[in-house]
From TrEMBL:
It is a multi-pass membrane protein. The lineage of its organism: Bacteria, Bacillati, Actinomycetota, Actinomycetes, Pseudonocardiales. Keywords: Cell membrane, Membrane, Transmembrane, Transmembrane helix, Transport. The keyword Membrane applies. It comes from Kibdelosporangium philippinense. Gene3D superfamilies: MFS general substrate transporter like domains (1.20.1250.20). This is MFS transporter. CDD domains: MFS_MMR_MDR_like. Its main location: membrane. Coiled coil: none annotated. Pfam families: MFS_1 (PF07690). It is found in: Cell membrane. Residues 27-502 form the Major facilitator superfamily (MFS) profile domain. The chain crosses the membrane at residues 25-48, 68-87, 99-119, 125-149, 161-183, 189-208, 228-246, 258-277, 298-326, 338-357, 369-388, 394-411, 432-458, 541-560.
């Protein structure tokens, strides 16, 4: 395939010297805006879901509507995980700025389509999910190419700062989305999607006019076999995880569902086929030879495990706050979604403090010590959360959230800078896509794991607690037993959505109870006290999983920089690897040497 020439201004190929010293800051500000609105939209619906479903007239807790709820939450994440590596490869081939601009346009159009939803019922739910998936496509273009654009635009001694600021937007946006969704959704649920439109329009025009391709383009054919097998395999695995947390038959979860098992096994087999294709492809989607770079390999292992550890944390903390702590401290169930987002702000503050500082420090002292220490700190906060009472003192909780955010910030910026700086210039788009794929897939996997652990903990003791608690307050034994047999996921989702769970579960039976008993059962204290102990069992198991994941991430961060001398350029590292193994393609080694003017003297020891 011939390299495509681009006539329009927004993707014109220029050198950095032609663009001037200010261009790098233009690239940083625009890509930061792109990642910020993309990640805000990945989480904004979490808090807004009750108002969205109420607005379209759908009860997400009805058995037939659970899939709507799950796909509204996870559809965006699934599609970005699947497509981001392909779009990074397209950026390498056709221009990173060009693909990034396309992503901004798609994202803006989908935001408009979401904001003007006029339907109701199932049609509205399907419309919203479909356009959320399209929005995820736009987000994947933005995520796949932003890091590569910055790595091209900034000199080696400033990449930690640039990628650190960009990384702040990527992670802080997911926390800010909770607060923004909580504020806007009660006013009108359309505003949750409308808020992105002006920023999308500004960003699209700005990127078209100001961003240019400064990196090396690769003449190559698209690896269709790799693209298809990767997409089919990863979609099968992620969809199986999504449906694995739904009830199946008499089971509280769907992990015994033959369809889920078949999708998991089949997905893994297709991904194994994908690896075999990539080993033989002259233009692979996943450039497996990049894993010969120690910093890239271990940095991605660390990033994958860190994402597994923290990915489901948002959901667990939201359920903890909304279902137990906030009602016990005077908040109505209708208010809990907004306040859950507000009470999690300390984590964002900790991250915003640590990420830019660690990014600057990693440019000077390397990323190894910072990233490793950050993961150890994060693991320590998870351990502290395991010994914190379910009905905690908020000051202690807030301090732990700040420290947790600091730990994640110390890891995120140095890890991202080290991984991206370890790549030759002609592979940065593909490398960024591979890294984003690991991270986004880990987020979906983490949600499935955390939800499964919590549901497993609830399923063992919640039925007995429900039966005894309800019958003690006048609910007929038959009704209490029937409610106790409902899947634990229904209780979990009710708490997550800010509904009054007992009111949802009892339904018409409430009218048959004495007014004082009905009032007590649907009050702020009964349900939280009922699920405190069952929830704590699952919570502790989930946090221990996060601890193990963070410790592995710390080990990966340490190994990423082991044995790489300070001052060795990427070209030298690749050439050394090629001479030892003979497995690095010649064009990669040649291109890394051609990039020596940029990479000379760069330290990758901090990987």
């Amino acid at each position: 395939m011939q390299e495509v020439g681009v006539a329009r201004r927004g993707a014109e190929r220029k050198s950095l010297s032609e663009l001037g010293p200010r261009y790098k800051w233009v690239a940083l500000s625009n890509t930061t805006l792109g990642l910020l609105i993309a990640t805000i939209n990945s989480s904004i619906v979490l808090i807004a879901l009750p108002d969205i479903f109420k607005g379209i007239g759908v009860n997400p807790l009805d058995a037939g509507n659970t899939s709507y709820l799950l796909w509204m939450m996870m559809g965006f994440l699934v599609v970005t995980a699947v497509l981001v590596v392909t779009f990074g490869r397209l950026g390498d081939m056709y221009g990173r700025a060009r693909m990034y601009n396309l992503g901004f346009l798609i994202f803006t159009i989908s935001s408009i389509a979401l904001a003007v939803t006029w339907m109701s019922g199932d049609a509205a739910a399907i419309w919203l999910i479909a356009w959320r998936i399209v929005q995820g496509i736009g987000g994947a273009f933005l995520m796949a190419n932003s890091s590569a654009i910055l790595t091209d635009a900034f000199p080696a001694n400033q990449r930690g700062l640039a990628l650190g600021v960009n990384g702040i937007a990527a992670i802080a946006g997911s926390f800010l989305g909770l607060v923004i969704g909580g504020v806007l959704a009660p006013i009108h649920w359309h505003w949750v999607f409308l808020v992105s439109v002006p920023f999308g329009l500004i960003g699209t025009v700005w990127a078209y006019l100001k961003l240019h391709d400064t990196g090396v383009r690769v003449k190559a054919k698209m690896d269709w076999g790799g693209n298809i097998t990767f997409a089919v395999g990863l979609i099968a695995v992620l969809v199986a995880i999504t449906y694995g947390i739904q009830p199946y038959g008499n089971s509280s979860m769907g992990w015994t569902n033959p369809w889920v098992i078949g999708a998991l096994v089949g997905g893994v087999l297709v991904l194994a086929w994908f690896v075999a294709i990539e080993r033989r492809s002259p233009n692979p989607l996943f450039n497996l030879s990049l894993f010969k770079i120690r910093t890239f390999t271990w940095g991605n292992v660390a990033n994958l495990m860190a994402s597994l550890g923290r990915g489901g944390l948002q959901f667990i903390l939201i359920i903890w706050l909304q279902g137990i702590w906030l009602p016990q401290h005077g908040y109505s169930f209708e208010e809990t979604p907004l306040w859950a987002g507000i009470y999690m702000v300390p984590m964002t503050i900790g991250f915003l403090i640590a990420a830019p500082i660690s990014g600057v420090l990693s440019d000077r002292i390397g990323a190894r010590g910072l990233a490793t220490t950050g993961m150890i700190i994060t693991a320590g906060t998870f351990f502290a959360l395991t010994i914190l009472p379910v009905n905690f003192d908020y000051v202690v909780f807030a301090i732990l959230l700040v420290i947790n955010g600091i730990g994640m910030g110390m890891f995120s910026s140095p890890n991202r800078a080290a991984v991206m700086s370890s790549l030759p210039s002609n592979a940065r788009g593909a490398g960024a896509g591979m890294t984003a794929t690991f991270q986004n897939a880990a987020m979906v996997l983490s949600i499935g794991i955390f939800f499964s652990l919590i549901i497993a903990g609830l399923s063992t003791s919640l039925p007995g607690a429900l039966t005894s608690g309800l019958t003690a307050h006048g609910v007929p034994a038959a009704d209490a037993n029937e409610i106790a047999q409902l899947p634990a996921v229904a209780v979990l989702f009710a708490a997550f959505l800010g509904y009054n769970p007992v009111q949802q579960l009892l339904g018409p039976a409430l009218s048959q109870l004495p007014p004082d008993q009905a009032s007590f059962l649907t009050g702020r204290s009964f349900f939280p006290s009922l699920i405190t102990e069952p929830f704590a069992d699952g919570l502790h198991v989930a946090f221990w999983f996060a601890i193990v994941a963070c410790v592995i991430a710390a080990v990966g961060s340490w190994l990423a920089g082991r044995g790489v001398p300070v001052g060795e350029s990427v070209g030298e590292e690749l050439a050394a690897t090629a001479s030892e193994s003979g497995t690095i393609p010649v064009d990669l080694v040649d291109m890394s040497r051609a990039d020596s003017s940029v990479t000379a003297g760069r330290s990758v020891s901090g990987g």
